[in-house]
Amino acid sequence: MSIPALVASTLLVTSAATTSVEKTPQVSITIYSTADPAGFDPQRYVAQQRNGFDPNAAWQVPGFGVVKQLKTFDLKPGRNTVAFTDVAAFLDPTTVGFTDLTDPKTSILEQSFQFDLVSPSKLLERYLDRRIKAVVANGDQKRIVEGDLLSSNQGRLVLRTDEGLEILDSSSAQISLPELPEGFLTRPTLVWDLLANDGGEHEIRTTYQTAGLTWRADYNLVINQDDTAADLTAWVTLLNLSGISYPDAQLKLVAGDVQRIAPKRNVVTGYGGGRRTLAMKPDTFAGFEEQSFFEYHLYTLPRTTTVVNNSSQQLALFPTVQNAKISKELLYQPTRSGRFDRTPYIDQNFVMSGANDIGVFVSFKNTEKNQLGMPLPKGRIRAYKQDPKDGTLEFIGEDMIDHTPRNETVRIKLGNAFDVVGERKVVDFKVDSAARTMSETIELEVRNQKKTVATVVVREHLYRWRNWKIDKRNLPFERVNANTVEWRLEIAPESSATVRYQVDYSW
Q1: CA atoms of 383 and 123, how far apart (whole Å)
Q2: How much is the pLDDT for 261?
Q3: How far apart are CA 410 and CA 375, in angstroms?
């Protein structure tokens, strides 16, 4: 369908205003995310848009953006009607902020967000009982039908021509309209009724919140051959379904749990601390700069970028970290902690069962000494290791990390050991209800079928009662917390090790 261009003067100029002349906009975007990296897939939203525009898709995106746009307008003293175009289609009008950087005395008398965008169906509704022209197929030829439009619905057009009524298929008809009716917009627009003291060019900044923007963090960990060090890369995946693109924008990301009260969607603000980057030379830094911001962390891209509408894109969060020290741990945890009731668990057959498999964990310290020392946003981390036979990287597991401050330890589970197995047995159990005592003797055997030494942490949760002591054991243990103990075993290749202990409970 051919649609004539929008006549700007029908919207931008009133009897009390002059037409505004815009210069190249300056844009800054701060994106907040509530996405769960475990289940959030940006490509699903992009695919939905490709299959057909969903007007509710933007509201379903787990996050939002705060957009700051700067434009220059020619104003005259007194009242002016100004149209601020190129705004997000899903902005919240109640969050709009206005600042005249040239003259702070300029004030807004009225504001409206006009989003009744032009569409074929709306245009045809405006042309009811008016004359239109349609070109339709007639065998191998085409014919022109002119007449008054009586109806446009259910994919059909009803025209009253000079020869009578004619019903056309609107999907195959090429329709020509003489002009665009007044009040239609080609883009969402903020329209302001301004009162200016001085005329001339005024630099105006607007700020607003919009739905349809979010981000997530993804990490790739490449572990060396002896499992002692790794290279870490971090990516930010942006999703933009806000209705517009943001060319050459200054991009910021906020990591942290920012509270919002629906439906006002107010942004939490605060004062930030000093900005810092990873310990690398400025000319080699390719990622985001990080700074404390209120009780959150703000990541700023030190260059502009274009955030394209209806798309997802990846940016480096920080440069690749090389040779960060890591530690690998095999954990056997056959029991789990429970909630203590008013009485102890005296049934011998009652067991707080944990994982019978032996989990494989990797951890590293997020410190500057370990090439890191930067707050890490919540995200998915995938681990790889090089196959020494052909040099290819093979996937060995993935996990989630929460928002992790600097100087904390990141610990991830990659899977379960194949060649190391554990077995737990209760070899003795006694209860003396009169004395209010109970004893339990446990054996935990760990078998290593590998051809290399296996270091295994055996962790036991003493779940039967809160008062306990272990006086009899074959190996020393470490007390982790009030009701958890653990042993660290070094097991030779193709051999086994056994932990035996007696725990005495009293109440």
Answers
A1: 54
A2: 59
A3: 11
The pLDDT of residue 116 is 63
Indicate if 134 and 170 belong to the same structural domain: yes
CATH number, domain of 331, equals 2.60.40.290
Tell whether 208 and 84 lie within a shared domain: yes
Pairing of strands 246-255, 26-33: parallel
Could you give the angle at the alpha carbon of 278 between the alpha carbons of 272 and 281, nearest 5°? 120
State how far the Cα of 14 lies from the Cα of 85, in Å rounded to an integer.
17
Q: Which two tokens stand for residue 177?
A: 């309209």
**pLDDT of the residue at 37:** 81
Count of beta carbons in the 10 Å neighbourhood of residue 349: 6
CB 412 within 8 A of CB 390: no
What is this structure's pTM?
0.72
pLDDT of residue 298: 81
Distance CA 11, CA 8 (A): 6
Distance (Å, rounded) from C-alpha 38 to C-alpha 381?
A: 10
- The answer to whether position 390 is within a domain reads no
Strands 97-100 and 296-307 come out as: unpaired
- Say what the alpha-carbon torsion angle 237, 239, 244, 249 is, to the nearest 10 degrees: -20
- Whose structure tokens read 């919540």? 378
Same-domain status, 211 and 69: yes
Q: How many residues appear in the chain?
A: 507
Cross-strand partners of 79: 195
Spatial distance between the Cα atoms of 85 and 272, rounded to a whole number of angstroms: 31
Residue ranges making up the domain that contains 157: 120-176
286 has a pLDDT exceeding 70: no
> Does residue 395 fall inside a structural domain?
no
Backbone angles phi, psi at 292, to 5 degrees: -70, 140
| CA distances for 163 relative to 60, 145, 148, 150, angstroms | 50, 10, 12, 15
- Would residue 381 count as lying in a domain? no
Specify the range with the lowest mean pLDDT, choosing from 18-22, 58-62, 205-209, 424-428. Answer: 18-22
Choose the final residue of a domain: 317, 338, 362. 317
Which two structure tokens, joined as six digits, stand for 490?
């070094």
Whose structure tokens read 């020619």?
A: 74
Query: Tokens 């032996």 appear where?
Result: 358
